[in-house]
Write a structure and sequence with these properties.
4 copies of one chain form a homotetramer. The first copy, chain A, is mainly alpha-helical. The first copy, chain A, is built from 10 helices and 5 strands; from the N terminus they run ββββααααααααααβ. Chain A has a 3-stranded antiparallel sheet. In chain A, helix 6 packs across helix 8, helix 6 packs across helix 9 and helix 6 runs antiparallel to helix 10. The longest helix of chain A has 24 residues. In chain A, 60% of the residues are buried. Chains in contact: A-B, A-C, A-D, B-C, B-D, C-D. At the A-B interface, strand 1, strand 2, strand 3, helix 1 and helix 2 of A face strand 1, strand 2, strand 3, helix 1 and helix 2 of B.
Chain lengths: 250, 250, 250, 250
């Protein structure tokens, strides 16, 4: 087989280096959050960047046992007690564009707004207004805005807000949506997207960071399911509304 | 359906609390590592405990693209470009007792050694010697010792070693193995196990912490596979050694 | 990398053979059930064996949207609409010893009963009585007996019963359990186990056959979730019963 | 929680019915392939339809241990021996648009060609020519054509070809591609797509049928990995080509 190539980790019998940094030195001095940044970037974060990364990872880690990813992990743990990794993986699989994954789409939305502003010499407000009008005309959903539980404002969003162009454009989008559509607050996925843009990370990280953070919560949920609950405890009530019983195989 | 109960997260329209701590306050002040500790424990860590947690999570996050979990995630990403979470989940599924999962078994080994020492008033060396003799007699593998790449010593182990009874017993086991079997160094899973015992965490966390840390690496590996490689690039060479072609359906 | 070896499929640019059978010939003449048997055995089934395999696969394919594996697949489909395979995989991950996986344990139970009868010249009834007494003494659960929904008898069990030593011993176990413990009927996992023993398949197939059959049901459940339901429709009710809100970060 | 609704299975303490058919009757008389059709359709198949379904499921079940889904399942089984379902799920997760999933896209391509022919009164050849010209102009890939191993023709395709409009249009597309682009044969995904259209199944079944069939192969691959190979046997060769070692944490 062809040898695989990678620019992330160089591991040999006497050394392990992550993007050139010796893992022993990292173990002594770096935080896990530093390492997450380093793995997805090409350098360690500054103190301000580390603070934002920590805030984001903490903010998405767990949203309650009933959140789809957490509930899925617990359902899997309820039927299969042989593999903690199976239950966590089942929870991860529930994460997609609809649940936790809006960050990537919102990063693309913000990035294209920033491009438009820079290319055409527009203010952020004007670029945001154009983007919202376009979404209105093409009836496209704006990823990163709105939340099924927090109908007014997600309390986690404000904490993330510091100064950066990504965040300024996200706020401009929020204002343009309020004026041109109706008040739909930026949600946690959208706030993450804005911060990640300002940290210089690619748009796929919008989803990946949610997954990395959420796995910490899934791990705790699965541990609780194993230790507090009986196997097979979960029964979902179902109502059949299909074709009635058939006679004679018809 | 019955309402589910949980003691981890309390999430409502205007608040999210993790084990009683307001998530906004955590986002402002805690690190992701603090939160991981809190999710699996009942309190935040001390600075020394946080340092150990960071060292462990950093130590297990990525061991190169060829490690089974990383290779699996990349193989999945190679065939399925529709879902980052699918590729990461595939990587997680590769983690078991054989790969990254020895920590749980080693935690049970150390915990039973500590119990024995306390109950029977033995020194750690004597308790360790008994455990090794028992494993020798019953031909049981001692989880947490030995590594396929690092045949002498895993460079990550020493960094984790501070003072605690779990670690003292792990070192006593290592000495007893050297004397009574042959030199088999404590590996990273075993070092984690010893530290986790000293942090007061249950034995399942031996596996869970590896998963939580490794997901950060899987995320970076999948990002690299998506951005640097073509879909379906991976071809595994296979040799068929089964029954020869059959004639006439025999 | 070392070349992998396999005795299952020989695939080249101009041929694909499964255990020596040309796949084109199989596509023309064999059923999917024949192929499933061939993949796990070393030959095609007889007509009677094919009938039993079909009955088993049909019997386990779907037990309603509320069964843990089906519910998990639908929960995953509810959050992640980018990957049908992610939703099906989440459902598969819920299958373990507790859900659908009792077959493997029951196959080992029956196989050891058959061994005991042959080795010690016992009747099946005597061998079964010994096995039940042993389980009673060691307080071990007997896998393959009892069901949470069908408290008296699972209607699917009788259909599988034809003549074979595995089935005779399973019936002897059922009788011994009724006499020595209390009436606990053989369940569908146990009936499968008995039939699979008679078909000469290894005990791991007890779980694998359940997975292969159930994936057909998971596929239909996921298709229905995608086509009839909105994303994120599922909300699990949760009650928090952990520590109360903390003041000042205590 | 709201009760879930379903039109697939009605399961109660004394009955299980699949789309109105009693499962006991199905276990006695139907094949697994009949049930797969029934689960995704609203009726049992005719003998000719059953034959096509069997041919398709047999055709996709296994393409060798080195196929991405099979290799992934074996890698997962190599690291995690606690859960057969984890290894199978990892294999399933590798299936996407690039691997096995082209069927859904090709079903949409054929269905839109059929619509165009019927709506505009075109011959199939004319409709196919328009579709190919369009793909050429927009530089879109035509799903269901071309294969990385079988550069000329996939030997499995011809077996599936009987008479139906879906198949006629697929052949017309193949001819139009040969004339207007270059010879790119219909592959197994495309052939499946054409047959599935003729069977009246929705386009998502293009992927689902591949998954259902392939799981039979994954099951056999995982069984072989568990029974013939040591845990952790697989080592992927990796070459690091990233930044060089850093000095002093720079």
């Amino acid at each position: 087989m062809d040898t695989w190539r990678t620019a992330i980790v160089d591991a040999g019998p006497t050394h392990i280096r992550v993007r050139g940094h010796d893992v022993l030195e990292l173990m002594r001095q770096a935080t896990f959050t530093d390492l997450i940044f380093l793995l997805h970037h090409d350098r360690l974060p500054s103190p301000a960047e580390r603070r934002l990364m920590d805030a984001m990872l903490v903010g998405v880690a767990d949203h309650g046992a009933g959140a789809p990813s957490c509930a899925t992990a617990r359902l899997a743990a309820s039927g299969n007690r042989q593999s903690l990794s199976a239950a966590i993986a089942a929870g991860v699989l529930t994460i997609g564009d609809e649940h936790g994954g809006a960050g990537s789409g919102c990063m693309e939305l913000i990035a294209s707004g920033l491009d438009r502003a820079r290319r055409d010499g527009l203010s952020f407000d004007a670029a945001a207004a154009q983007a919202v009008d376009e979404a209105k005309r093409t009836r496209t959903r704006l990823p990163g805005f709105g939340h099924r539980v927090h109908s007014t404002i997600d309390p986690r969003v404000d904490v993330l807000f510091t100064l950066g162009d990504g965040i300024r454009l996200a706020r401009a989008l929020e204002a343009a949506i309020r004026e041109r559509l109706k008040p739909i607050p930026l949600n946690i996925d959208g706030a993450l997207a804005a911060v990640l843009i300002d940290l210089g990370l690619p748009s796929m990280v919008g989803k990946l960071l949610f997954i990395v953070g959420r796995v910490a919560g899934l791990s705790a949920e699965v541990l609780e399911e194993y230790t507090r609950e009986q196997p097979m405890r979960i029964k979902i009530p179902v109502k059949y509304d299909g074709v009635p019983p058939r006679q004679n195989g018809q």
